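Handout, page 2. Input:
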Amino acid sequence: MATTQYSDACEAYNRSINLNPNDAQTWCSLGVLYYAYGQYREALGMLVKALKLNPKMADAWYNVGALYEMCDQPEDAQMAYQKAKEHGLGERFAKAGIGMNPRE
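Output:
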């Protein structure tokens, strides 16, 4: 069941990208999907694509940080988390009453 949903989601995101290849949010969402299914290298590529299209996309920076942290690259993770914070993600987390970085 989950594999079918994953395939369906990938297809939908890829159709969306084919229609609008400059949509940073779709690239970010596809990256998160790949991340969730353990395809980390592909996920990073898609998140980087999202950031090339929109360097101020806080959600993409946060997910890049999470990927780096998972891969035991704490300096790179911290840089990405800082970028996410600079672009407003920290404010959203603070309003929700949670820390942004799992190490905080």
